[in-house]
Design goal:
Length: about 120
């Protein structure tokens, strides 16, 4: 649900924001947004991972680092997902899910139903 709340790519208003952020003359704004999100969203993700560990859903000795890696990769790789072909999108998403499950020592395929819908994939 947290990731859905951060996804502003749906709808025309979100699209307009993303369009402005990605303009070359707004590179500094893009960087500042990324930094702000990194420092504010990463602790939220780490909290979710820590809760998952306490519930036996996942396991890692590095919840904060996994949260940071997950955020940075997803923000970078999926920032401009519209520019990829459907095949490239599917491959990136499959690799992301696979690696996230490895980082969190989760059963293979356990994140499929959660993550794919966030990016409009089945």
């Amino acid at each position: 649900m947290m990731m859905l709340a951060l996804n502003i790519s749906d709808g025309s208003f979100g699209h307009e924001i993303l369009e402005q952020v990605h303009k070359p003359q707004n590179a500094l704004m893009h960087q500042k947004i990324q930094e702000k999100l990194l420092f504010e969203v990463t602790p939220l993700i780490a909290t979710l991972i820590t809760e998952g560990i306490s519930q036996g859903i996942c396991q890692t000795d590095y919840p904060e680092e996994v949260a940071e890696m997950t955020f940075l990769y997803s923000y970078t790789a999926f920032d401009d997902l519209m520019e990829y072909s459907e095949e490239e999108k599917k491959k990136k998403m499959t690799a992301f899910i696979y690696n996230l499950e490895r980082l969190l020592n989760m059963e293979q395929g356990s994140m499929e139903e959660i993550i794919r819908p966030l990016f409009g994939q089945k």
